[in-house]
Write a structure and sequence with these properties.
The structure holds two protein chains of two kinds. Chain A is about 80% helix and about 0% strand. Chain A is mainly alpha-helical. Chain B has helices at about 1-5, 10-30, 65-100, 100-115, 120-130, 135-160, 165-170, 175-185, 190-210, 225-230, 240-265. The chains are: A mainly alpha, B mainly alpha. Chain B: Belongs to the binding-protein-dependent transport system permease family.
Chain lengths: ~325, ~280
């Protein structure tokens, strides 16, 4: 069994490596499809005034005189050695930019998931405790709202309402990291995390409701109740404990939404995370930044999916025991 | 169909969508009293009234007319995107699950690569690369949803090819393509229909997010996302410029979600017998 599991994980890891290679090819080809290159992006219309010799020199400098395949492997090789490219606009290496922005988005993601679980799991359990009653309808309204209100609309509205009505606008000043000023940082993170958390609370709520309803009708729950297990312990230990597998899986699946939503929410709340880095790269036409950052995000996403897979094997007693 | 009529979610979703469709069609036919694009500075920031149902914006344009046109544009992009994704994805899933082998490996590889991107990020990157018009926005969104349709159809096709009547069809000597379209495809239509409804709501949200970020249909064409973006700084001068497009985009997505939920409850074989 151990060998088999190891084999499974090895096979999964090999598949993941293949996928990541495909992702790199895709990103590279996609950004080469844009008319223009680093030279025209850097110089704009003035690029037309370059003499052929200057043009050739710049092409050699950026490696654009190499065949596309060579350019691709040069980029990929550089990524492995930590050379992610250079952002002329920020006068910084993309690696430095990423090392600063990635932890910010990671913090935002963790806070969003915590808020989503705090909203989704109790409401889902409440809805399941009496299906088709008023409390169930409440759950349905909340999840429908979570699925239907776009993050940018909720973010825009919260930002204006809180700033105007409560004078709460911590994002109006410079961003503070968790290490620099924990209190200010949390104040700056609360609204963005709430917006993202509300979006993913909906699928978590629905999954919790469905899973709890299913587990409740199992024989072992009836047995436990007959044995006189106290109701609270029964609900938490027996019902929720067994409903945890689909909940964790669903939470892991929401990570993609989170990383995409981060682009929008970070932009609105001026949070200098990795989503904003991509968007700025796109807006400023700094394709070196976009290319490497998108690859880093895809890598993070794939790794989280892999982790969810492993985690769910760990918490599912059936998989563990077999 | 009659089961669908008994689903309150499906009925209310349909009512909402029909209402919005009527408004969008009126706008497409040019039957609304104002022009969605022409500016009229003397009438800027008029509050909602009988003549301007949702008021006017910073250029004196009628917000109701612009919202109506925006709904039409959003719906057009979402429908084209999902139609493309449905056809391409279903075909991919059919071939992948029915032929197995090399085709399955190749389609699976491409699917995994596309799934490695957070959906909105992929749409955003594609939209930023393509030349900007409504069609390329639809293409960018479509590419994101193709792998979902591949995955949703491939599983059922895998189990269908082992079922007796499909094997019987093989024995009668029909071509594989014939069997695939005549015997396998009809059996997965309900799965596809549910997925279409759910994908439409995501497509509307994605389109709105892209245009909010300035990567959707370029201005001055009215788009719900860019209207909300422009209204950010006007919230306190003219709140209706934010509330109207905001409420309508939510209504559109709610309508699609309700219809999708209703379809899932009535069509999904796993729910049969539960009601």
């Amino acid at each position: 069994m151990r060998a088999l599991l190891r084999n499974r994980i090895v096979r999964r890891a090999a598949g993941t490596a293949g996928t990541l290679f495909g992702v790199a090819v895709f990103v590279f080809v996609m950004l080469r499809a844009i008319p223009g290159n680093q030279i025209t992006a850097g110089l704009g219309t003035e690029a037309a005034a370059l003499t052929p010799a200057q043009q050739a020199a710049l092409e050699r400098y950026y490696g654009l005189d190499q065949p596309l395949v060579a350019q691709f492997f040069a980029w990929l090789g550089n990524m492995f050695t930590g050379n992610f490219g250079y952002s002329a606009r920020n006068q910084q290496s993309v690696l430095d930019l990423t090392l600063r922005s990635l932890p910010v988005t990671a913090e935002l993601a963790v806070l969003s998931i915590v808020l989503a679980l705090l909203i989704g799991v109790p409401l889902g359990m409440l809805a399941a405790s009496r299906p088709n009653a008023a409390r169930d309808a409440l759950g349905q309204v909340v999840s429908l709202a979570g699925l239907s209100i776009p993050a940018f609309l909720l973010a825009t509205t919260l930002l204006s309402v809180f700033a105007a009505s409560f004078g709460f606008n911590p994002n109006g000043q410079g961003f503070a990291t968790l290490a620099e000023d924990p209190l200010l940082n949390l104040r700056q993170m609360v609204l963005p995390a709430l917006v993202l958390g509300f979006g993913i609370a909906a699928p978590i709520l629905r999954t919790t409701r469905a899973a709890v309803l299913e587990v409740r009708s199992e024989d072992f729950v009836r047995t436990a109740r007959a044995k006189g297990v106290p109701e609270r312990r029964l609900q938490v230990r027996h019902v929720l404990g067994n409903a945890l597998v689909p909940i964790v899986t669903m939470t892991g699946l929401q990570f993609g939404y989170l990383l995409g939503g981060a682009v929008v929410v970070e932009q609105i709340f001026s949070v200098p995370g990795i989503g904003r880095q991509v968007l700025l790269g796109i807006q400023q036409k700094e394709y070196a930044v976009v290319q490497s950052t998108v690859l880093v995000i895809a890598l993070a996403f794939v790794l989280v999916n892999l982790l969810t897979d492993v985690l769910y094997r760990v918490i599912d007693p059936r998989v563990r025991a077999s | 169909m009659s089961a669908l009529r008994r689903s309150p979610a499906a009925v209310s979703g349909t009512v909402i969508l029909v209402l919005l469709a009527v408004v969008a069609v009126l706008s497409f036919l040019g039957l609304l009293p104002y022009d969605p694009i022409a500016q009229n500075p003397p009438e800027r920031f008029l509050a909602p009234s009988g003549s301007h149902l949702f008021g006017t914006d910073q250029f004196g344009r009628d917000v109701f007319t612009r919202v109506a046109a925006g709904v039409g544009n959003s719906a057009l992009i979402a429908v084209v995107a999902v139609a493309f994704a449905t056809v391409a994805g279903t075909l991919g899933g059919l071939v992948s699950g029915f032929y197995r082998g090399l085709a399955d490996g190749a389609i699976g590889g491409v699917t995994n690569v596309l799934f490695a991107f957070p959906p909105l990020l992929l749409a955003l990157s594609l939209a930023s690369v393509l030349e900007r018009n409504w069609f390329t926005v639809a293409v960018a969104i479509a590419i994101v949803y193709v792998p979902i349709f591949v995955r949703v159809t491939r599983g059922p096709v895998l189990s269908l090819r082992e079922i007796e009547y499909v094997k019987a069809a093989v024995a009668t000597g029909q071509s594989r393509a014939q069997i695939m379209f005549r015997h396998v495809l009809p059996n997965i239509t309900s799965i596809i229909v549910i997925q279409v409804a759910l994908s439409l709501s995501w497509a509307v949200l994605t389109e709105a997010s892209l245009s909010f970020l300035g990567l959707g249909t370029p201005p001055p064409a009215p788009s719900l996302g860019s209207m909300i973006f422009e209204a950010r700084s006007l919230v306190f001068v003219a709140p209706w410029t934010l509330i109207a497009p905001g409420a309508v985009v939510v209504l559109l997505v709610v309508g699609l979600n309700l219809l999708g939920d209703g379809l899932r409850d009535t069509l999904d074989p796993r729910n049969r017998g539960k009601r």
